[in-house]
Amino acid sequence: MRALAIVVCAIFFPVFGYLEVRHLRCTRQVTASQNAAQISRQQGNSYASVLYNLAWERFRAHERIGQIWVFAPTKFGIWLQKFRKGQITLVLVELQGNDQVGGELYLAHYNALTLQKADELALAGNYGQAEEIYNLMNFHNAYGISNELIIPRIRAAKALVEGKEVEESLQVIRELRETHGSSIFEEIEPSIAVISTNFFELSPYEIK
Question: What is the pTM of this model?
Answer without folding.
Answer: 0.73
